[in-house]
Amino acid sequence: MRQNPSFAMTDVGEIRRLIDLNPWVTLVSQAEEGLVASHYAVMLDEDRDDLTIVGHVGKPDDAILGLGARELLVVVQGPHGYITPRWYGEVAAVPTWNFVSAHLRGIPELLSPEENLRVLDRLVDRFEGHGDDARGLYTLPNDVTFVERLERGTVGFRLTPTHVTAKRKLSQNRTVEVVETIIDGLTAEGRHELADEMRRAADARVRP
Fold it and tell me: Do residues 83 and 115 make contact, with C-beta atoms less than 8 angstroms apart?
C-alpha cells in the first residue's frame, strides 16, 4: 500500500482499535505457485500492548500459506466508501474512495496445541457474546474430546509484525467545511461507519 504522509496512521492505539473493530482479515503469502490468500478472524494478543495478533487457520491452509516459514501479509480493512465530488461544491473535482486500512507483515510464530486452544476459546467467547444462550467452546454438547479433535484440524499462530503500513484516507486534504458536508452526506445515506471515522479524524485535526 503506497503511503502518503497526509494520510499516514502511525499511532499504535489507533491501529489496535482498527484491528479490534475489524477482525476479519486477509492473509496473503507468496507460495511456489504464486500469491495465495485466505480469510480468517484474528484478535490482538491480550498479553501484549503492541500490534501482535493471534489467530488460527484450518488445515491445509497452513501449508498453502507456508505458515511459520514465510512472510505473511495481513490486510486489515476498516470502513470505506465512495465519495462523490458533489460534496466538494462547484469546483473541478473527481470522485474518490475514503478508507481506513492497515498492512501487517512478518513471519508468524506457530502456537502449541495448548496455546491454540486458548486462542480458539477466546475467539468463540468474544464473538458468541455473553447472553443466556451463549455457547462457549466447552459448552455441552461440545465436550473436551470433541474440542481437542477440533483443535487438531487447525494451526494457531502469533504474528508480531516487523513492518506496518497503516493509512487513514478520510478527506484530511479538504477544508473543514467540505469535510462537514461529506460527513452530513454519508450520514444522510446511512453510511454511518465511514461518517463516524471521518468525524473521529476531523476531531483529531482540531484537537490541541
Answer: no
DSSP 8: B
DSSP label at residue 169: E
Q: 85-124: per-residue pLDDT in tens?
A: 999 988 888 999 999 999 999 999 999 999 999 999 999 9
* Domains assigned to the chain: 12-172 (2.30.110.10)
Instruction: Say if residue 115 is exposed, middle or buried (CB neighbours under 10 Å; 0-12, 13-18, 19+).
Output: middle
CA–CA gap between residue 157 and residue 68 (Å, rounded): 8
Q: What is the DSSP letter of 66?
A: T
pLDDT for 32-72, tens place per residue?
889 999 999 999 999 999 999 999 999 999 999 999 999 99
Q: What 3-state class would DSSP assign to 151? A: helix
